């Protein structure tokens, strides 16, 4: 589907099938965790009686069931990002668009968020499109990668192939800066011999 060609009702329907996670969380600070998640369901037109059970289910999935009545100011950065993830997946999207989801987090918290995204992909079958400049994030979670330079895709393919055999000069530069980093096991298993 070419989303840029859609208009009106078709575009609104397509947008409802895409969940978004932002770099800076974008939580409503005057609403509780549960209310932040419920907001997306109300906006999507969910029946009132189905909202609370869905919010509880999603907060359990992201590990925040015990934080449902807290406000964003009472949460850590990682917990805020989990609220953002819960809000993004509450409406059963087909695609989860993640804009730099770990760039505002420390390494340990980033690892837990990436593990949660892998779990969501595996359990719920949601396609995840991840926008990042962090090569470690790409290596740890992505199956495929598209490298952009100047607003255009200059190279794409399986992560291992692009990292092992970069074709474009920009990709070669990116990869050369990460050569000293260890490849995760899921990529090492593709190495010959």
Automatic annotation (TrEMBL):
> Start and end of every ABC transporter domain?
1-175
Keyword Translocase set for record: yes
Presence of the UniProt keyword Nucleotide-binding in the record: yes
Q: How does it sit in the membrane?
A: Peripheral membrane protein
PROSITE patterns with a match to the protein in the record: ABC_TRANSPORTER_1 (PS00211), ABC_TRANSPORTER_2 (PS50893)
- Kindly list the places in or outside the cell where this protein is found, as annotated in its UniProt entry: Cell inner membrane
Q: Which GO terms describe its biological process?
A: amino acid transport
Question: What GO terms fall under cellular component here?
Answer: plasma membrane
GO MF assignments? ATP binding; ATP hydrolysis activity
Q: Which UniProt keywords apply?
A: Amino-acid transport, ATP-binding, Cell membrane, Membrane, Nucleotide-binding, Translocase, Transport
Q: What is this protein called?
A: Methionine ABC transporter ATP-binding protein
Q: What is the lineage of its organism?
A: Bacteria, Pseudomonadati, Pseudomonadota, Gammaproteobacteria, Enterobacterales
